[in-house]
Amino acid sequence: MTPPTAIDRLADWICSLHADRAVRNIPASVRSIAANCLIDTIGVAFAGSATAVARTARAIAVDAGSRGDAAVLGSHHLFSAPAAAFANATSAHALDFDDNCYAGFVHGSAVIAPAAIAVAQKRNASGRDLLTAFIVGSECEYAVGAATNSVLYDHGWWTTGVLGPIGACAAAAWLLKLDRRQTASALGLAVAGTGGMKACFGTDAKALMAGRAAEAGIVAALLAAQGASGPHDAFEHWNGFNGLFNQGEFNLATMAQLGMQWFLESPGVDIKRIPLCLSSHAAVDAAMALVARHAIDVAAIEEIVCDVPQIVFANLIYNQPATRQQAQFSMPFAIAVSLLYGSVQLQHLDGAVLQEQPVLELMKRVKMTVGPRWSLEGACEAAPEGANVRIRLRGGDWLEEFQAQARGSAQCPMRQDEIEAKFMQCMEAGSAGNVHGQGGSGNGGDRDTGALLLSRLKSIETLPSVRELFSVR
């Protein structure tokens, strides 16, 4: 007998959750984590809906003339599920303020949540079903991500673009209640058509590719629902995922962990405290801790050296950023703005801040290096985006701080009130951007709207229908 493929195993698990009793076996802790992921992702999507790249995505959705039942943030119109997922996932990743997961080094929620919401609205599904679909998509995507053993990411593929369609497709397939054959075909279509390069970093392509990943996953599920076939061996085929993307490596055993080990719990999801690439966060935390502990006058700093893993060095490529997108991948910007302003907020991602003389001067004093500590066995596994920060003050004194995990990571999570405060700040940012002409007025949120939406999201499992999720009534 031919052994089951990776897609067979994914499809089997997805379809096993069609029974209500099986859904009830999802641990409450997992559902709680997933609910916070939805809160965080919808918040950052509202803020991102005011950006130029989100407006571009909405314009394409409008131009396609696609009408349906799914809401798009920043628009009064309802769109087809693929169009809505494209626009909303672009918004969710536009500010790089969305969550991460180390199972694949992937931005999961920004792709999966918009896809799940769009299909749930198309199907007039309940909030409970939306949350379950999000969990299904997340677990499938992270299982595949874990199976790559980071080879995919290390070889220059952008995992959000490559793995995102898998998570979006799994969520959509579950909501559409595809049978096992259809589910496997949908996943085969999603895997066979996937792609994404890290060359997108620092440009609009990064957010737009997140949008395309969400759209592609839904389209694959809808095609399979209409009878289209897809390769069930899309991973193992000699011209498949494993060989073309992952240097022939793939740990099929992770598929067997679905439903027993929950990837939303371990390695967990990292919710961002500041709107920058997560690679900079631990270094920022370490630098801020040094300044606070030693009451350092920032003007007295001569040099800041951040000793980081190779992955951080490779991600943060802009020492002299000229745009918002470049600033989000700049260690000097992250450190300088944090020390000068006390934190990095959405309003700091502005061209004017990049031109401020104190920011420019402090950025020149920040350096990154990859020291020998990261070659020690287990060092990168224990602190995948950690940092050892040394600050030299005028007069020659050095101060040092090591930070293994950033605050907001799964190992050092934000408090519930901090997650909710971030949500409200994002809602206000989206509302301000829309009011000032930077986006369609649509359903961008003010504080009252934000409070209403937050209340709905906190009780998502009791909502009879998600079609009114973003309604201000």
Please give a structural write-up:
Belongs to the PrpD family. This is 2-methylcitrate dehydratase. InterPro entries: MmgE/PrpD_sf, MmgE/PrpD_sf_1, MmgE/PrpD_sf_2, MmgE_PrpD, MmgE_PrpD_C, MmgE_PrpD_N. It comes from Herbaspirillum hiltneri N3. By secondary structure, this protein is α+β, with helices and mostly antiparallel strands. The protein is 52% helix and 7% strand. It folds into two domains: 6-272 and 415-462, 2-methylcitrate dehydratase PrpD, CATH 1.10.4100.10; 278-403, 60s Ribosomal Protein L30, Chain: A. The protein has helices spanning 6-16, 20-24, 28-48, 52-63, 81-94, 109-122, 127-147, 151-154, 159-176, 180-192, 205-225, 241-245, 264-268, 281-293, 310-315, 324-327, 331-341, 351-354, 357-363, 379-382, 416-435, 447-458; strands at residues 67-71, 78-79, 100-101, 269-270, 301-307, 366-369, 387-393, 398-403. The strands form three sheets. A four-stranded mixed sheet has the order 6-5-7-8. β7 (387-393) and β8 form a beta hairpin. α6 (109-122) runs parallel beside α9. The longest helix is centred in the N-terminal third of the chain and has 21 residues, at 28-48. The protein is globular and about 70 Å long.
